[in-house]
Amino acid sequence: RAPSPPPRAAAPRPPSPPAKDGPLSAEVIAQIKEFDAAGRRILAYKTYREATGVGFREAEAAVKAILEQS
After folding, report:
1. Measuring CA to CA, which of 19, 27, 34, 67 is 20 to 30 A from 9?
2. What is the pTM of this model?
3. CB–CB of 52/24 below 8 Å?
4. DSSP codes, 6-67
């Protein structure tokens, strides 16, 4: 039997954007609230994730806290 080829390495994942320090800008918070009001909460989570670099679960909890404060 011929030897099998060596296993392929998984493609490297692109690096996550670095987490930004400090509070969110008023613009990002306003956009999160607009997405929620339009029934687009997933986009609100995505906006938060892009602004902070956190994972989905963290973004979900943070967005819910932002919306509860309003």
Report:
1. 19
2. 0.68
3. yes
4. PPPPPPPPPPPPPPPPSPPPHHHHHHHHHHHHTT-HHHHHHHHHHHH---HHHHHHHHHHHH
